Amino acid sequence: xxxxxxxxxxxxxxxxxxxxxxxxxxxxxxxxxxxxxxxxxxxxxxxxxxxxxxxxxxxxxxxxxxxxxxxxxxxxxxxxxxxxxxxxxxxxxxxxxxxxxxxxxxxxxxxxxxxxxxxxxxxxxxxxxxxxxxxxxxxxxxxxxxxxxxxxxxxxxxxxxxxxxxxxxxxxxxxxxxxxxxxxxxxxxxxxxxxxxxxxxxxxxxxxxxxxxxxxxxxxxxxxxxxxxxxxxxxxxxxxxxxxxxxxxxxxxxxxxxxxxxxxxxxxxxxxxxxxxxxxxxxxxxxxxxxxxxxxxxxxxxxxxxxxxxxxxxxxxxxxxxxxxxxxxxxxxxxxxxxxxxxxxxxxxxxxxxxxxxxxxxxxxxxxxxxxxxxxxxxxxxxxxxxxxxxxxxxxx
Length: 397
Prior knowledge:
Elements lengths: L2 H4 L3 H18 L24 H26 L3 H26 L3 H4 L3 H16 L8 H21 L17 H19 L4 H19 L8 H6 L6 H21 L3 H26 L8 H24 L11 H4 L1 H17 L11 H24 L7
Helix pairs in contact: 2-3, 2-13, 2-15, 2-16, 3-8, 3-11, 3-13, 4-6, 4-8, 6-7, 6-15, 8-11, 9-11, 11-12, 11-13, 12-13, 15-16
């Protein structure tokens, strides 16, 4: 088998696209009323999980699935280990920066900062696009540097004028938490480094996954004291939960490539279903100790959501990589191959809607009609991503 062919796994991009579509959909549910509770995020104090609580972990898992393929692709192009490591660090840094700015926007004191949240988000996202768009190779190098310099200056000014908090507790730019993109950045960083530095070793990756899950369990069991150095070190990683997802995805792809090389699809499906069942049952067992919660990133949430993602991946893999039905998903593919732009576009959409004083009638924000509205909004964002991609806007870290 040609090594380049063996690295093409269409189902991973398509599963990412489905997950991105769902992410935009569930993130828009805040605008609705009278919708089923099981669709929404479950409160942090509760023992439960809604559809919205499964989307982010699926995205983390898929990010981990992509790591072996992207690393092997870079090695085939001639990149050595140090070059790949620096690429991983740079990519992680970009995600951390974006996550941090968007989180600060969510806590901004508009009066003290002199800028509204919507304007903040639009400027931030515009700067992100200018910095990390895949610009044409023939673009004048000084023009490109100027574009990126303007973006950096804009972000620096925003960070300088930023004020959060209320009354006597006004403060400057801060780390509230790392945001969705930042959490992805931390999880990607540690997972990719483990994979690269171990030279693709499956067993070292497996040990790392056990370690991350063990840290998550130890944290919830009270074995890592709160406010201790250890607690502070694992906090950006969701107490081990986030890299447990990404490393689980990496292990899944390594197994997939192993079975693909031997053309053992039936055996692969059996193994994956067995693993999903074991993870699910382990999650049900762990729920009895610490409950299941996305907000608290409990072990049960990690195990059960990993099982769900593996299970959903199998029919997508069968339809696309085995049966060649990739065209069935053509309309949403931009969400899978231009994912970062797709994630940022809703920030522009919400800001433009408010700035133009556009408001939807209540009937479009209620019940099943509201759900249809949110789904169509998500689909429109994905279609717009594809259109902008054809115009040359494609974010790639």
